[in-house]
């Protein structure tokens, strides 16, 4: 891996797609101005609707649509690799969409697509979430190569399923757009992120929703960048903003050489 400056964008997305897109554009510009070459938006960056079904009304066909054109142009304008959080893409099943991460190269071309595989379900303490009601799961892991780094993709709830990322190892960077709830985030977010970094001996760039949304939902935030030893390099607890860090190939090589756990894998 080459030295690589990366940025995780944290948002508190609203019910306005255009408003969210404008905020994403401003925050990505802020990240690019720091010299970041890989920028990650959070899950649901384009919409946190009043109802789960709201995403159906803004879903786009893969390869065409207002959001996809704007994201491609954003990557091209700033000459960055853009991991565009997630956006709803049309699926073959009526009433359901894919929750998809699209990656754009510095020339604006789409470099990778990942459809979220594991769908969040939770009930308790007055909250209930059932992504499977409106989302069709993906069926395959995904990663992409950029100059100097191999990057694995996951989304939010995927974080709890270590085997997804293990199937892609070794890689240099794991990126994870997310919208963790405040309840589950407080309990599990940091420890899970650090575990994925440690066991895969990779950097982790986690970009989150972070605050109280118009629909009453509160997300945990704490967007962070973690090194292969599990050390937190940068973190933004709450609110909109950008966290930036430079990934060091010497650090990655040192961890893997001193503790060659990836070489010791049996299964």
From TrEMBL:
Keywords attached to this entry: Hydrolase
CDD domains assigned to the protein according to its UniProt record, in alphabetical order: nit
Domain CN hydrolase stretches: 4-249
One Pfam family named in its UniProt record: CN_hydrolase
InterPro entries for this protein: C-N_Hydrolase, C-N_Hydrolase_sf, Nit1/2_C-N_Hydrolase
GO molecular function annotation: hydrolase activity, acting on carbon-nitrogen (but not peptide) bonds, in linear amides
Protein name listed in UniProt: Carbon-nitrogen hydrolase family protein
Native organism: Crenobacter intestini
């Amino acid at each position: 891996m080459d030295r690589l400056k990366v940025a995780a964008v944290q948002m508190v997305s609203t019910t306005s797609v255009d408003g969210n897109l404008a905020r994403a554009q401003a925050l990505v510009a802020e990240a690019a101005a720091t010299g970041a070459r890989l920028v990650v938006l959070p899950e649901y960056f384009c919409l946190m609707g009043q109802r789960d079904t709201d995403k159906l009304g803004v879903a786009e066909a893969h390869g065409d649509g207002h959001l996809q054109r704007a994201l491609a142009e954003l990557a091209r304008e700033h000459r960055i690799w853009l991991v565009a959080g997630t956006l709803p893409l049309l699926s073959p099943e009526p009433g359901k969409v894919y929750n998809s991460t699209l990656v754009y190269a510095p020339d604006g071309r789409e470099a990778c697509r990942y459809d979220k595989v594991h769908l969040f379900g939770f009930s308790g303490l007055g909250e209930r979430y059932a992504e499977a009601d409106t989302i069709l799961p993906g069926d395959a892991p995904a990663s992409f190569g950029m100059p100097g780094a191999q990057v694995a993709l996951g989304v939010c709830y995927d974080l709890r399923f270590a085997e997804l990322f293990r199937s892609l190892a070794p890689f240099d960077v794991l990126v994870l757009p997310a919208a963790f709830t405040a309840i589950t985030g407080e309990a599990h977010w940091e420890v899970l992120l650090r575990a994925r970094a440690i066991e895969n001996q990779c950097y982790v760039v986690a970009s989150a929703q972070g605050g109280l949304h118009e629909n009453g939902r509160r997300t945990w935030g704490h967007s962070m960048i973690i090194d292969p030893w599990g050390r937190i390099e940068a973190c933004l607890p709450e609110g909109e903003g950008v966290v930036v860090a430079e990934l060091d190939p010497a650090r990655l090589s040192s961890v893997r050489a001193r503790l060659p756990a990836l070489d010791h894998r049996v299964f």
